[in-house]
């Protein structure tokens, strides 16, 4: 056995090897450089995502109620069982699903409409684009507050419009509403605000898709005598499907996490808690980290399932 | 002729609908912010402020430390954006340009991170930051925001880097540049617009974030703007005249960013900055 791996290479081998190491550092091979460049991103993701998630799953099997100062103890699936027997959890889940099922299709419809309108040949495109960017850029927390003021029962502009329309058209029998008194009416305000905030992002994505549809396709359809509606259904929509699907995945995932808008509405409080709000309450306010973790695992599973369903659909489209 | 006229009218109508939809809520808050409390609580409501007043703005600064919130938001969003851009630019270059064994696997992993529910992350992060005594510090938010923006920035930059012709790099290397040298001297300057675009998207994302900010940095001193804005309301009272003045102040920075960089923001959103 040679004492050193350089022993058989002669006296200069060690120096040559060192030289090579320096050269490699200054001008590394592609694979090494590649890994070196990706490394910081991977390390950060491991620290801030992978480790916490592992931590989360482990914690969900423990009783960690920091407010009581009791020692942490393993309780198996008790947190999960507690969640399944917790009416507050089911209510939060129901509210979250209602918001998701209303606002995702809602944002898609409104976004599609906005994109069609914005795609008309305007001179001042900049202004139109700006109007689409504004809802995207405003923080959700601001949007919640702004719409809470819109729906104010006494001095809100929504009720003002309703009063005016009622004066003009008494036959409609419209009445101003006390929006934040009942859960269902608060839910209307929450959904309107969410759709307003998210539809413009949909519109931007769809608009970008619309602008890649070649004009020659429409010209050909025109020659064949297809109506505008047929053109839309047969040419525009199918070509938009890929960009719409990607936008829908992300919209659904964020809808499942709805927090800010219901949180900033004055509404009937607990009644309209979403899953995200209930998780936050248990974790930060009650310091019940075990239960909070179990709830968060539910949320995680819900998101995974959503992604999975969409991806299957995307694959099905391709096949 | 009538057909043309109606189509021009249609276009005007379409433009008005789109602009009103986007701008009205912000505009209404601006109008509200100039009305006195007495004017706000009269019926029928006024649309245009009758006696425009700046009193609400003074009250907004008096009731809450708005400059502190603004500073916190600016510091946290700026630092996390810069770090995120640096880290993701390195990774994106490797993923776009170099022959790597597990390239697709790494890309998939990064996309998976972007689909991760933030609320889920909030629970363990709260515990970890609490354990490290980092609750109520800039770190508590800078680190997560950096990572949350990594996927979007990396994906955007990969597509930007792929658009830069390889020949430029090869030419630089023939002239004696090392690979890192050609990355620094040729690719980075050429990709600057793309990096800038990714930066704006990351900045807006960090600026807008609410849940982590509220959960991890609850102390007034480290509160960011979206959370700070919620502090004007009492248990039952919503002083809308003051809230709207504060909202206007809080909206100004983000509206300026969007106004200045709207082309870039749009190209960023549609090229892979898919989160909203």
Provide an overview of this structure.
The complex is a heterodimer of chains A (319) and B (276). Chain A starts with 12 loop residues before the first helix and ends with a helix. Chain A has helices at residues 13-26, 30-59, 78-84, 87-118, 125-137, 140-150, 157-168, 183-210, 215-223, 228-256, 260-264, 275-285, 289-318, and strands at 62-63, 73-74. Chain A is mainly alpha-helical and 319 residues long. In chain A, strands 1-2 form a two-stranded antiparallel ribbon. Chain A is 72% helix and 1% strand. Chain A has a domain at 98-268: MetI-like (MetI-like fold, Orthogonal Bundle). Chain B has a single domain, classed as MetI-like fold, CATH 1.10.3720. Chain B contains 13 helices and no strands. In chain B, 75% of the residues lie in helices and 0% in strands. Chain B is an all-alpha fold and 276 residues long. Chain B is globular. At the A-B interface, helix 2, helix 4, helix 5, helix 6 and helix 7 of A face helix 1, helix 4, helix 5, helix 6 and helix 7 of B.
CATH architecture of the domain at 98-268 in chain A: Orthogonal Bundle
The CATH superfamily name of the domain at 98-268 in chain A is: MetI-like
Q: What form of chain A results from the Cα inertia axes? A: flat
- Work out the largest interface and the residue count of each chain: A-B, 98 and 95 residues
Quaternary structure annotation: heterodimer
CATH topology of chain B: MetI-like fold
Total beta strand runs of chain B: 0
Our Rg estimate of chain B from Cα atoms comes to: 23 Å
Taken from the alpha-carbon principal axes, the silhouette of chain B is globular
Share in helix of chain A: over 70%
- The CATH class of chain B turns out to be Mainly Alpha
CATH level-1 class of the domain at 98-268 in chain A: Mainly Alpha
């Amino acid at each position: 056995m040679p004492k050193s791996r350089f022993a058989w290479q002669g006296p200069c081998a060690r120096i040559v090897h060192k030289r090579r190491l320096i050269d490699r550092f200054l001008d590394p091979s592609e694979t090494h450089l590649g890994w070196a460049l990706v490394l910081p991103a991977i390390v950060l993701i491991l620290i801030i995502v992978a480790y916490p998630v592992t931590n989360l799953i482990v914690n969900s099997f423990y009783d960690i109620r920091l407010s009581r100062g009791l020692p942490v103890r393993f309780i198996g699936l008790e947190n999960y069982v507690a969640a399944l027997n917790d009416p507050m959890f089911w209510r939060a889940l129901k509210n979250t699903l209602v918001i998701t099922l209303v606002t995702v299709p809602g944002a898609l419809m409104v976004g599609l409409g906005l994109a069609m309108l914005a795609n008309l040949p305007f001179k001042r495109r900049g202004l139109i684009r700006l109007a689409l960017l504004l809802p995207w850029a405003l923080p959700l927390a601001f949007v919640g507050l702004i719409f809470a003021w819109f729906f104010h029962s006494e001095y809100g502009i929504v009720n003002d419009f309703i009063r005016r329309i009622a004066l003009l058209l008494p036959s409609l029998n419209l009445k101003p509403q006390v929006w934040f008194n009942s859960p269902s009416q608060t839910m209307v305000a929450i959904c309107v605000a969410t759709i307003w905030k998210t539809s413009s992002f949909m519109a931007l994505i769809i608009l970008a898709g619309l602008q890649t549809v070649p004009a020659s396709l429409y010209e050909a359809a025109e020659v064949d005598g297809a109506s505008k509606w047929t053109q839309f259904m047969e040419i525009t929509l199918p070509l938009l499907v890929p960009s719409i699907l990607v936008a829908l995945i992300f919209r659904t995932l964020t809808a499942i996490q709805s927090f800010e808008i219901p949180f900033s509405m004055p509404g009937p409080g607990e009644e309209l808690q979403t899953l995200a709000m209930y998780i936050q309450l248990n974790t930060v306010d009650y310091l019940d980290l075990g239960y909070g973790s179990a709830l968060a695992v539910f949320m995680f599973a819900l998101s995974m399932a959503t992604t999975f369903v969409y991806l299957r659909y995307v694959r099905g489209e391709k096949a | 002729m009538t057909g043309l006229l109606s189509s021009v009218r249609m276009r005007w109508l379409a433009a008005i609908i789109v602009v009103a939809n986007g701008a009205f809520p912000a505009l209404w808050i601006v109008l509200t912010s100039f009305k006195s409390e007495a004017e706000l609580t009269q019926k029928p409501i006024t649309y245009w402020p009758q006696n425009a007043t700046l009193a609400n703005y003074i009250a907004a600064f008096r009731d809450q430390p708005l400059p502190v919130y603004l500073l916190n938001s600016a510091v946290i969003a700026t630092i996390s954006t810069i770090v995120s851009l640096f880290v993701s630019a390195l990774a994106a270059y490797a993923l776009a340009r170099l022959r790597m064994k597990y390239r697709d696997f790494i890309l998939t992993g990064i996309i998976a991170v972007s689909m991760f529910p933030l609320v889920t992350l909030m629970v363990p992060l709260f515990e970890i930051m609490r354990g490290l005594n980092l609750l109520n510090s800039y770190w508590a938010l800078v680190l997560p925001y950096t990572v949350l923006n990594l996927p979007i920035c990396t994906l955007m930059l990969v597509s930007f880097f792929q658009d830069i012709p390889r020949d430029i790099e090869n030419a630089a290397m023939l002239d004696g540049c090392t690979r890192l040298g050609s990355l620094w001297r040729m690719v980075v300057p050429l990709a600057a617009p793309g990096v800038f675009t990714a930066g704006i998207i990351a900045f807006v994302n960090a600026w807008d974030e609410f849940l982590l900010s509220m959960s991890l940095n609850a102390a007034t001193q480290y509160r960011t703007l979206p959370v700070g804005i919620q502090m004007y309301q009492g248990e039952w009272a919503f002083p809308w005249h003051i809230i709207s003045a504060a909202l206007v102040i809080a909206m100004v920075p983000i509206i300026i960013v969007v106004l200045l960089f709207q082309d870039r923001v749009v190209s960023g959103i549609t090229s892979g900055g898919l989160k909203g």
